[in-house]
Amino acid sequence: MVACAVEQGICLLEFTDRKNIDKQFKSLSKSLNAEIVEKDHPHFKLLEHELSEYFEGKRTRFEVPLYTTGTEFQEKVWQLLREIPMGEIRTYKQQSEFLGNPKAIRAVGTANGINKIAILIPCHRVIGSNGELIGYAGGIWRKQKLLELEKAILF
């Protein structure tokens, strides 16, 4: 995985093989009006520790600070994602209903798709209304593995 951080928190966490990762970097750079440079950051140590615990099955919540850059709607979608408890899933339709706009299913899906902070903002916990695993930029196989990991942590 690759991570980016600013003083306020982690602003990107992505799988290195993510489709269109270059677009994520460009979008982040533009929204922050900053150049992305490779160097250490104080948030990375906590991030690495928490991710290690997560993948070892020892962590159900993340405390590392996050910093998101999006529209007001995107920020609401991402906040709602953070409220999905580990081990639970929701549909895109449920997410749009929670936002008070049941017809915004595609907009919710789009916001999920441009989420720059994988795992910590758990867009992998959102599935299709028919129960199928759809719409994960990190790969459906990875979405399946993350959901299996989280189920195993809790049960």
Record field, number of beta strands = 4
Count of domain modules: 2
**Rounded radius of gyration (Å):** 15 Å
Instruction: Tell me the distance between the termini.
Output: 27 Å
CATH architecture of the largest domain: Orthogonal Bundle
Main sheet: strands, sense, barrel: 2 strands, antiparallel
Structural class: mainly alpha
The CATH class of the largest domain is identified as Mainly Alpha
**Helix content range of the residues, please?**
40-55%
Give unreliable regions as ranges.
Answer: none
Q: Largest sheet, order of strands side by side?
A: 1-2
CATH topology of the largest domain: Arc Repressor Mutant, subunit A
Task: Describe the structure concisely for a colleague.
The chain is mainly alpha-helical. 44% of the residues lie in helices and 10% in strands. The longest helix has 15 residues.
Per-chain topology:
Blueprint: E1 2-6, E2 9-14, H1 21-32, H2 42-55, H3 72-82, E3 90-91, H4 92-98, H5 105-113, E4 126-127, H6 140-154
Parallel strand pairs: 3-4
Antiparallel strand pairs: 1-2
Helix pairs in contact: 4-5
Q: Please, could you describe this protein's structure?
A:
With 155 residues, this protein is mostly helical. The chain folds into 2 domains: 2-55, no CATH class; 72-154, Orthogonal Bundle (Arc Repressor Mutant, subunit A). Helices cover 44% and strands 10% of the residues. A two-stranded antiparallel sheet has the order 1-2. It is globular, with a radius of gyration of 15 Å. The relative contact order is 0.16.
